[in-house]
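Troubleshooting entry. The earlier prediction with magnesium ion gave an output that would not parse, so I re-checked the input for stray whitespace and re-submitted. Clean input:
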Amino acid sequence: MQAGPDNSLIAPLVERACATIRDHEAELTELDRAIGDGDHGVNMRRGFEAIAAQRAELQALDFWPAVQKAGTILVMRVGGASGPLYGSLLMAMGKAEGGLAERFAAGVAAVKSRGKSDIGAKTMLDVLVPVQQALAAGATPAALRAIAAEAAAATLPMRASKGRASFLGERSVGHVDPGARSAELLIAMACDLAENPMQAAPMEKSS
Ligand code: ADP
Ligand code: MG
């Protein structure tokens, strides 16, 4: 068995993921208002706050079991489609074997299977799939961040064929997919942390 990342990374990851989502809650909601039901920001914030509320339990685990547990929290606590989808991603990454690239591939496969979807449907998978392919090919964090940003922006002209946005048909064209944007934000956050683990913000002591 390959040892996972040190579990001292759990605290900064949770903290930064929460901060990232909080900082962009309004933007994600706005994107979802255009082509969905306007709850993606709040769904994501609730989910990541639920993870943060269990920071002590998570920090007591090894890294990958903590990722798996964070996934179950998202599945249980988020009402929208994005909770079970991001939850499946994290659960499958936590359960898989191998290094980050293998685990991310397992996670993305789980999202495809849970969402009965794939690249091209104007969803988070339009970001997750190219990032997964680049990660498998050994891309640097800086390259992954750029790929995620480009892929999220590239959902703008797409027509949705999965999720709520698909109900709009042609009217889904001309807007960035909210889940693609949240995937971009979370990937950028993880890339920043991979580049600068030492600058991770300390975890709040309370709660
Ligand atoms: P809901 O659509 O239930 O309101 P959210 O608004 O939280 O849930 O999340 C919407 C996002 O979920 C979409 O922008 C899209 O990226 C993603 N999504 C929805 N359905 C699917 C699916 N079948 N496969 C992959 N991603 C999906
Ligand atoms: Mg929604």
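This one parsed fine. The CA atoms of residues 34 and 175 lie 7 Å apart.
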